[in-house]
TrEMBL record:
Alphabetized InterPro entries for the sequence: GAF-like_dom_sf (IPR029016), HATPase_C_sf (IPR036890), HATPase_dom (IPR003594), His_kinase_dom (IPR005467), HisK_dim/P_dom (IPR003661), HisK_dim/P_sf (IPR036097), PAC (IPR001610), PAS (IPR000014)
Catalytic activity: ATP + protein L-histidine = ADP + protein N-phospho-L-histidine
One Gene Ontology MF term: phosphorelay sensor kinase activity
SUPFAM superfamilies xrefs: ATPase domain of HSP90 chaperone/DNA topoisomerase II/histidine kinase (SSF55874), GAF domain-like (SSF55781), Homodimeric domain of signal transducing histidine kinase (SSF47384), PYP-like sensor domain (PAS domain) (SSF55785)
PAC domain mapped to chain residues: 94-145
Enzyme Commission designation: 2.7.13.3
Domain of life: Bacteria
Domain (Histidine kinase) ranges: 324-540
Organism: Ramlibacter humi
Keyword Manganese found: no
Ranges for domain PAS: 21-91
Taxonomic lineage from the root: Bacteria, Pseudomonadati, Pseudomonadota, Betaproteobacteria, Burkholderiales
UniProt keyword terms in alphabetical order: Phosphoprotein
Protein name: histidine kinase
């Protein structure tokens, strides 16, 4: 039995007692994590508790009786009161954990132990010790969270390690991420090289998948989000009500909270991982850090898989190239061998000799053409193909191409139809020999892959901004996969009896590209024929004009060129920065007009690199958001749609050009 002589003073009278003892207690409470306290038999405080008062900052009148529960967190007070009642009734030592408000207003997690003191077998009071375990609990929670985080990342790696499909890797990452952090949906998007558009490659949503595979402009995210993503910072909308912005595919419109984490490669956004919640939520630093790690690992793994798939595809293409090259060489070599064997016969007549000689020359021509295509394609890819640009009229290109391809067309007994539709006044800027080579390659390909006796049509059409050459055949046609493969230089394979390298079309595509044009393939499907087209920018005027204007924009090109056609200038238009670069190398423009609707380039530096140092630059309308304010200093600006002001400015530029010569 423990006996204690309790001297019960009047607590209210002693409340005002101050001095060194009180300072000592406050100092002790501020620098220790232990609170010693005691209560009456029923759990109410009936005497002074200096340690409790110092820790909580409460005066005796604020904690005596059951008022001490006022220092306990409201969510814990009821549970603690019930626990005290049970312990008092059971008359046994007990432990408890609860949050208690410290003198500075911060709630601290306390671990308490309490035991009864008895006199004559009856409980006369309870004495307890409460220890501040906040830091310990936080450290334990952080350790558990870190272990869970590492386990999640390990599980993520394990779930995607053997995946050979980039989309599968992204989709598993999105699903596992959303599930782990308790989000409603998660999306993985890649930012295109132009840094202006994104495409959601994979997503997971609690109610079904979001939209995937469609390109969207990044500016739908808004200026604030764009600025953060451009810096590599995360962007969060927390408890926003219905989302203030809608990024198609990244999250649902009704999302309450959104978090977008970008991944930078070479100082530009390369990918984004977005998580959303349809319930109000804040995103902790730990969640943001976890998503950064997951996005980084997902991106790295996707790149490894893509590199591996690319190597496999290159191996397949190399094997296909060598096999097809052998096939294409074997046909003329067999014909040459047969003709040579015939010539060796002493009984060969003069007519036989002439026939065999013509066959040998024809087959040697095919071999020379094949070898020339290989060399030319290599030169284009190395940037070593030199152009001799001039203004060329379409019918000259058509006539020369038909003359080159004529023997191949005649040999297969095809019906060739040429339609040059009122484009005699239209011209294109380019190297006549190379443009003839490109169009003749399309005609030779059509003759080669169309069954004998087919119909081949070559036509030319023009509008204000472009001239289009089109070769149509009634051959076997192309599936969607074959069209894509041909444009990527994969050649023919599989469904056709005639195989080929596809060198002709790849050479066409590259030659047209360095002329600032584009190549397209169309077909209704297998067995329905094919159409190959070359689109080149239309040129107005002559290259020897002192004022050479390049208009770069997707809008108003026809109207602008119409206004310029009456001026003694040379002018072209294109909507693409990439094609504009090729045109500028041939044209050497003295004036460059950029419209607001210009398609984005790789980055602002691409725009600066495009501008000739000696050229005058004009913005026809305000520059788009992706163009830095200082990207092109001293550029003139004209309100969009004001064609007269644009014409007047160009006329003034023309006058200055005349004055300097």
């Amino acid at each position: 039995m423990i006996k204690r002589d309790l001297k019960r003073a009047d607590p209210v009278a002693e409340e005002g007692t101050s001095g060194r003892a009180e300072v000592r207690l406050h100092t002790l409470a501020a620098n220790t994590s232990v609170v010693v306290w005691y209560t009456g038999p029923d759990g109410a405080m009936t005497a002074l508790n200096p340690s409790f008062g110092a820790f909580t900052g409460r005066a005796p009148r604020q904690y005596l009786g059951w008022k001490w529960l006022g220092a306990v967190h409201p969510e814990d007070a009821k549970h603690l009161f019930d626990a005290v009642q049970r312990d008092v009734a059971a008359e046994r030592p007990a432990t408890a954990r609860y949050r208690m408000r410290r003198y500075d207003g911060e709630y601290r997690l306390m671990a308490a132990q309490v035991a009864p003191i008895r006199e004559d077998g009856r409980i006369c009071e309870w004495v307890g010790v409460s220890i501040d375990v906040t830091e310990q609990a936080e450290a334990e929670a952080a350790l558990r969270a870190n272990e869970a985080r590492l386990q999640f990342l390990d599980d993520l790696v394990g779930a995607t390690r053997n995946a050979a499909d980039p989309t599968a890797i992204m989709r598993r990452t999105a699903r596992m991420m959303a599930t782990f952090i308790g989000a409603t949906s998660s999306s993985y998007a890649e930012v295109h090289a132009d840094a202006q558009t994104y495409t959601v490659r994979a997503s997971w949503d609690a109610d079904g998948e979001l939209e995937e595979g469609v390109a969207h402009p990044l500016d739908v995210l808004g200026r604030e989000a764009l600025a953060a993503i451009g810096r590599g910072d995360s962007f969060a909308l927390e408890n926003a009500g219905p989302a203030r912005l809608h990024a198609p595919g990244l999250y649902r419109l009704e999302s309450e909270s959104v978090l977008i984490v970008p991944l930078l490669k070479d100082n530009r956004p390369a990918a984004m991982l977005a998580v959303t919640s349809i319930l109000p939520r804040t995103w902790s630093r730990e969640v943001v850090s976890l998503i950064y790690d997951a996005a980084d690992r997902c991106w790295a793994h996707v790149q490894r898989v893509r590199d591996h798939l690319l190597l496999l595809e290159q191996d397949r293409n190399r094997d296909h190239f060598l096999a097809t090259l052998a096939h294409e060489l074997s046909n003329p070599l067999s014909a040459i061998s047969y003709a040579a064997a015939t010539l060796r016969q002493s009984s060969s007549s003069r007519k036989t000799v002439e026939t065999c000689t013509a066959a040998i020359e024809r087959q040697l021509g095919l071999i020379r053409r094949l070898v020339a295509d290989i060399f030319d394609l290599a030169a284009v890819k190395r940037g070593q193909l030199k152009l001799q640009p001039t203004v060329v009229v379409p019918d000259v290109i058509v006539n020369d191409a038909v003359a080159v391809a004529g023997p191949s067309i005649a040999l297969a007994r095809h019906d060739l139809r040429a339609l040059v539709l009122d484009v005699h006044e239209a011209g294109v800027l380019g190297d006549p020999a190379r443009l003839t080579q490109a169009l003749s390659n399309l005609l030779v390909n059509a003759a080669k892959y169309t069954p004998d006796g087919g119909t081949i049509t070559v036509s030319v059409t023009a509008d204000a901004a472009a001239v289009t050459f089109r070769v149509q055949d009634n051959g076997p046609g192309l599936t969607a996969d074959e069209r894509a493969r041909l444009l990527l230089g994969g050649g023919w394979r599989g469904s056709h009896s005639t195989v080929g390298l596809g060198l002709g079309l790849e050479l066409v595509k590259n030659v047209v590209s360095i002329h600032g044009g584009k190549t397209e393939v169309a077909s209704e499907g297998s067995g329905l024929g094919s159409a190959f087209s070359i689109e080149l920018p239309r040129i107005y005027g002559h290259l020897n004009e002192r004022c050479r204007i390049l208009y770069i924009g997707a809008l108003d090109a026809a109207e602008v060129l119409s206004q310029l056609s009456s001026l003694p200038v040379c002018a072209l238009a294109t909507a693409s920065l990439a094609r504009a670069r090729a045109i500028a190398e041939m044209l050497h423009p003295t004036v460059m007009v950029f419209h607001t609707g210009v398609e984005p380039g790789d980055h602002t530096d691409a725009l600066k690199d495009l501008v000739d140092p000696g050229a005058q630059v004009v913005w026809y309308g305000d520059p788009p958001a992706w163009v830095g304010a200082a990207s092109i200093p001293n550029a003139a600006r004209i309100r969009g749609g004001d064609l007269k002001a644009l014409r007047d400015l160009l006329a003034a530029s023309l006058s200055r050009e005349k004055g300097t010569h």
